[in-house]
Amino acid sequence: MGRNTVALMPTGGGKSLCFQIPALMLQGVCVVVSPLLALMEDQVNQLTDRGIKALFIPGGTPRKELDRLLDNAHYGGYSFLYLSPERLQDPLVQSRLSHMPIVLYAIDEAHCIAQWGHDFRPAYLACATVHQIKKAPVLALTATATPEVLEEIITQLQIPDAIVHKTTFARTNIEYQIIKTEDKWYRLQQALSKTKKSVIIYANSKDLTERLAEELVKHGHTADYFHGGLSAEQKSAKLKSWLQDQTQITVATTAFGMGIDKADVGLVVHYQIPENLEQYYQETGRAGRDGGRAKALLLYDHQDIAKAKDQLSAKKVDRTFIKELYKHLHAYLGVAYGEKPEGSFLFSMNQFCETYGLAQSKSAQAFSLLHHHKIIQVREIHHPVAQIKWTKTVDLDYCEHNPAPSVQFLGWLYRHKPPQNPWIFDPKNLATKARLSQKTLHHFLESLHRSNDLFYQIQIEDTEIEYLMPREDDRTIEAFLPSLKPLMESKQKKQNQIFQYLDLVQGCRMSFILSYFGEQTDHVCGICDLCHALPEPDSLQSQQLRAAIIRCLRESPCNSRTLVDIIEAPEAWILHSIAALLAEELIEINQKNDYAIKR
Length: 599
Description:
six-stranded parallel beta sheet; single chain; alpha/beta; globular; 25 helices; seven-stranded parallel beta sheet; 4 domains; 16% strand; Rossmann fold
């Protein structure tokens, strides 16, 4: 008790209890940093149902309401205050926390602070500031930390003295199965027909989640989709429907991720190849939390490997790209050489990328790196904001003696916020302070914008950018560029490792995963597809099987499903023989996606 600690526990291993029980014993406020609104809301509801006082502060909370909630947390006898990492960056929140009786900081999903991790989130770097806010022990929790990520968590959180508590990552009740197939839809239908429990199907694009969900509904399933393009209200409604068993199947991107907790998930399907084993392990770990037998199925075809390689390539950044993006950023924001602007800028990632013809995935990676190395600070915007830049000095005497409402407002605004460019504000809060309706405020600001008294911009932005260092171009960013190559190499290595996992033909899948996470063990799960693998066909059986496939395809091209139905042999043998015949170019895949004799 009282020591900084890092806890590595598998998904569903009861991580929340690790901070909830100590916090209640210490009798103060436990500040929990968590990445997802749904997760915070769920945990607060569970605590409240047990008679424990807890609250969370969602993004977009107006300043007045924020003040009230922080007052409640301080004076209302609350035991838990849940914050997003973005909210923890807020100077007002930090100031108020400094006066609270904080007994513990719990940093949930702590791997998000590590740029070497699969879910790096720049805002998580704000967690390192807790030592300056109010002294209290730090408990970092994660289910997906490799040895490298663990080291970076400790470094970034500035807890070199931390005790590391690690439990086994083994999931003894999950049957891991990999199927390479040219008919993923058929294989999916097979798997779904064998379970009545809740199901998650992971896909890599928003569009595919919607199309798969639509097809599943057409085939009589209760299914819905979930991805990052949905509003908070839509996400909440879809999640609620799934948690309450009104929807059996959720088809989702990785947005349906951390903190999703449902005990009776019987099947998790990856319909495409995940980026790395951390993501894969975390997502498969949503199955079998009730202790019952569950299945993790990964389906892929010959095109998925190429797609995965292309997607990784699209995210890779090099020295040239970083320097180009940094140069474009100055031009876009109008920052001169040697300048370190005061305040922050509203910024549209979409508009910026379109203006300079930059790939969004690469640009997001580059901005994360610039943030991580404290060159700029990047904050996502989750609530309505606007921006003002003063374009000239305001004559306050003139304003005082001119009765026109817009001029009176101009004088008030200039006294309220003299020139410090740019100024980002919440329109609702400013309207309250000015004793105006939001509509009247907007009308006044647009009028002053047209008369060139100030520059006024309403939100089309999704990001806030602040310069932490003066603009000195290459000199500014050269210091961190040597770390760029090993980071990109690490991402490539992680992809190669999941390819190795797919290609395993002997051993145990769980044993491979445990080794990846640095757990040295002779563990054999006994239930994965490799542990139950069929013996290889002998030479005669192999020749007979190849001949049978060739005979069928000479009669008519067909898919693997038809071949499995026609030929009397184990399915795994048939699929292996098909793959060998393709590799030897004796057969091919035609335009109808059927196997055919090579011309």
